[in-house]
Design brief:
The chain is α/β, with parallel strands linked by helices. It has one domain: TIM Barrel (Alpha-Beta Barrel), CATH 3.20.20. Helix content is about 30%, strand content about 20%. The protein is built from nine helices and 13 strands. The strands form three sheets. Strands 5-3-4-6-7-8-10-9 form an eight-stranded mixed sheet. Strands 11-12-13 form a three-stranded parallel sheet, with no helix packed on it. α3 crosses α4 and α8 packs parallel to α9. The two termini are about 30 Å apart. The structure holds iron/sulfur cluster. Iron/sulfur cluster (SF4) binds next to loops.
Length: about 290
Amino acid sequence: MICRLCPRGCGADRSLSPGFCGLGETMRIARIAPHYWEEPPVSGTRGTGAVFFSGCTLRCAYCQNGDISHRNAGRDFSVRELSDSLKRLTDLGVHTISFITATPFIPQLLSALELWRPPVPLVWNSSGYEAVPSLRMLEGVIDVYLPDLKHYSARMGQLCAKAPDYFEAASAAVQEMCRQTGTPVYSPDGIMLRGTLIRHLILPGLTGESMRLLTWVRDTLPSGTPVSLMRQYIPCNNVDIPGLTRRVTDREYERVRAHMAALELPGFLQEPDSADRDFVPVFNQPESFV
Ligand code: SF4
């Protein structure tokens, strides 16, 4: 199959050789387990059943999960094996099931969901670097989109991820996600049953980018679209981009938080103590898989 599933549009025949993402045709997964550290409407009290796919189409230089996003750590899964894992996850009582960076495996994932669809909301957790035709394959299947919105300028997209078209692609993608889901719908206990929740990670020295992105969200996306503003950036993956080798200061965070409040965007704020490596899950170990 010639692959153009993401905006890289490599055109690789992954049965023969991988494209930019380094992935073949067989699904590769680094962790399948309950996860408690997503936003409350996704994790609730019993967690989301998180499926962390290996590989990433964006590969940010500072990625916290470099072993899986850059180095594709994980193990191969058949469609049947994934379907069986989804049953085991659901039996643990999770509120939702989350597919994390699954874009290169959309056809295989859809096949697994045809075998068995979990009876809880399905969440698509991604970098936001998505191709609209690929998202249309997910219409009616995915209930909740949880995309990042990372970089506003082509310069930062290039510098951080060799993706100068990041904002062009991600802005079209999140508008498509909002079109599919409409404004958020919640269960009585606060779990998002349907909707799109935008995530934004503040980067050190780049509060201007953050503020432009938040203004774009307010001006473009449906009113009521929530934003999760994250400040837990830590320099990871031996990042050596000037300015990105430190954490975000309280003053930087406060500047962006105040802008979000002025825009009256609904959403979530992360506490300073969430900037901690303990929140990085264990990948590709025997205990990583239900
Ligand atoms: S999913 Fe991988 S192979 Fe396919 S277009 Fe994107 S980077 Fe290229």
